Amino acid sequence: MATLPSPANGTAVLPSSSASSVPARDPHPANYAWFLNISIWILATSSTAFLTLRIWGKRRRDRKLWWDDHFLISSWVCLIISCILQSFATTLGFGMDNRDIKDLATTRLVSLIAGFFLIIAAAWSKTSFAITLLRISDGWVRRFVWFVLLSTNIAIALSGVIQWAPCWPLQKQWHMELPGVCLRLWFINGYNIFVAAYSGLMDIALALLPWKIVWPMVIWSRREKLGITFSMSLGVFAGLTSFAKILALYLVTKPNAEPEFVMVLMILGTAESAITIIAVSIPVLRSSLKGNIRPVARSSLAVL
Question: Is this prediction's pTM over 0.70?
Answer without folding.
Answer: yes
